[in-house]
Every structure is written in C-alpha cells, then in structure tokens.
Amino acid sequence: MPDDEGHPTVEEMRLGPVLAALADPLRRRVVRELAAAPDGTARTCSSFALPVSKATVTHHFRALREAGLIQQVSRGNSRMASLRRADLEQRFPGLLGMVAAEPEG
User: What's the angle, vertex CA 49, arms to CA 20 and CA 65, rounded to 5?
Assistant: First the structure.
C-alpha cells in the first residue's frame, strides 16, 4: 500500500505506470536531471524550470511520485524531489540507465 504521500513500495511499483510516467518528455527530463546528480540529491520542483503552469508541474511530479520514480518530502512551502535510484534499479534493472542515456529533445 502506498504511504500517506502516495509513494508505492518497491513491490508495488508496476511497469505500466512507470512507463506511462516516463512517456512525457518533461517528466523524462526531470528523471534525467536527477539521475545526473549525485545519489541522494533533492531539488525543489520549481528548480527544474519546466515551461508549464504551476498546476501542470504539480501534475507531472504527482505522476512521477505515484509511479514510484521519485520520493517527495515537504519542506516548508515547497516539496523536495529525489530519485528513487536504488528502488528503481532493484525493481527494473537497467531502466534508469536507459532513460539517463537518452539524449534530450
């Protein structure tokens, strides 16, 4: 069962929702940027400067969180996002590497 913040456990992560979340180029960009950062790096959602409204940014990060790609933690008025690198590698070996290696655009 997902936790109170909507994060599925490793066992609950399913390929369909993960691929659906990664189908969007902006969400893949977020994952690539987090994958390029040192493990454990957390960033505010606004730091990605996505070219969409705040409501759409919220939607994108919810899709990533509910699929299990990112972990989000509230910090005051903002939310910090970090990549669930170890969980993804355990559940879907090699997937993160393929996404990270994909050229942007």
Answer: 35
Tally of CB atoms within 10 A around 13: 19
Where along the chain do its domains lie?
15-96
pLDDT digits (tens, 9 = 90+) for 6-54: 799 999 999 999 999 999 999 999 999 999 999 989 999 999 999 999 9
Pairing of strands 42-44, 70-75: unpaired
Instruction: Calculate the CA 24 to chain-centre distance.
Output: 12
Q: What is residue 47's three-state secondary structure? A: helix
Q: What is the 3-state secondary structure (H, E, C) of 51-69?
A: CCCHHHHHHHHHHHHHHCC
Query: 37: how many CB neighbours lie within 10 A of its CB?
Result: 14
CB 81 within 8 A of CB 30: yes
- d(CA 13, CA 78) in angstroms, rounded, equals 25
CATH of region 15-96: 1.10.10.10
